[in-house]
Design goal:
Elements: H1 2-64, E1 77-85, E2 88-96, E3 101-102, H2 108-117, H3 122-136, H4 149-154, H5 180-186, E4 190-191, H6 206-209, H7 217-232, E5 255-263, E6 266-276, E7 284-291
Parallel strand pairs: 3-4
Antiparallel strand pairs: 1-2, 2-5, 5-6, 6-7
Helix pairs in contact: 2-3
Length: 302
């Protein structure tokens, strides 16, 4: 009798353990399923945000073909335009690349001024500016503070100067002295598509204007304020006499389109550089196409 009670007790314990085990397995399966579904939903949401951002780029292309006399035509001055496409909120801006400093054709003084404006010392700015020029020029002669092949070899670096113009802005990462942090700070202000020694003062961002030698932050702020007021009044941009030496003109060689789409907590940013072509069979060419820095899931906290 006692043995039967013991056997029943053991059976009950086994049943309970099996029930607990099955519950744990079911719970784990349900959790994994929910996680997978959440990942799929996030991927789908991100894909929709990416498609919406790309649609913003195409809207910018359409605007570029409006007649210049059309008051509704988007100006290429970097100002944001708000759109809505279904559930996506889209912000699009267009900026002529002449508003940036060209690392191929930009004045060495302007390149050095850009580095100084970012807080580098005189010595650091001169060294990196000279290294940039040594990278882009055709000879193998090193500038006083620059770097040619021997300097890279001595520093244990695998790359060497191209002795040719930069093919992409990202190539600047390879220049001796260019750190990842410095590149991230300088990248929004540089281009290879302006092909001018100066910058377009009528649309250049404040950060670019601060790189111009001889101008003060107060002068830059006063000019930007007057320029903004002129835009709102639909008037021509004012002159900036202190920076006139480094002025350039819009050339339409490259238009940077920044399109940022947000759906819920998902945000995607597309950065494209386009060239408008007066040919109905091929109205524009894509010079650059990449994700922007804010192409992240906002829930991730990055």
């Amino acid at each position: 009798m006692k043995n039967k009670r013991n056997q029943r007790g053991i059976a009950i314990v086994l049943v309970l353990w099996v029930s607990v085990l099955l519950t744990v397995i079911a719970g784990s399966f349900a959790y994994a399923t929910r996680t997978d579904m959440s990942l799929v939903a996030n991927h789908m949401q991100r894909a929709r945000a990416e498609a919406a951002a790309d649609a913003g780029v195409h809207r910018a292309v359409l605007e570029a073909f409006r007649p210049i006399s059309d008051p509704a035509r988007w100006k290429h001055d970097g100002r944001e335009h708000q759109l809505r496409l279904g559930e996506a909120e889209i912000s699009v801006s267009v900026l002529d690349e002449s508003a940036k400093i060209d690392i191929n054709d930009g004045s060495p003084v302007l390149l050095r001024g850009l580095l100084l404006s970012l807080g580098l010392t005189e010595q650091e700015s001169t060294r990196i500016s000279d290294a940039i020029q040594d990278w882009r020029d055709a000879d193998s002669l090193s500038r006083p503070a620059g770097a040619e092949e021997e300097a890279y070899r001595s520093a244990g670096l695998k790359q060497k100067p191209a002795n040719a113009p930069f093919q992409t802005v990202e190539e600047l990462r390879l220049v001796m002295g260019m750190t990842s942090d410095l590149y991230q700070r300088i990248e929004p202000m540089i281009t290879i598509y302006s092909r001018q020694p100066g910058v377009n003062l009528t649309i250049a961002p404040r950060e670019v204007l601060l790189a111009i030698p001889g101008v003060t932050p107060e002068q830059v702020d006063a000019f930007v304020s007057a320029r903004d007021a002129a835009v709102l009044a639909n008037q021509p941009a004012p002159t900036f006499p202190q920076a006139a030496t480094f002025g350039a003109v819009p050339n339409m060689i490259g238009l940077q389109v920044k399109s940022r789409a947000r759906i819920g907590e998902i945000e995607f940013e597309r950065l494209a550089v386009l060239k408008v072509i007066p040919d109905p069979r091929r109205p524009f060419a894509v010079l650059s196409w990449r994700e922007g820095r804010s192409a992240v899931d906002m829930n991730a906290g990055t």
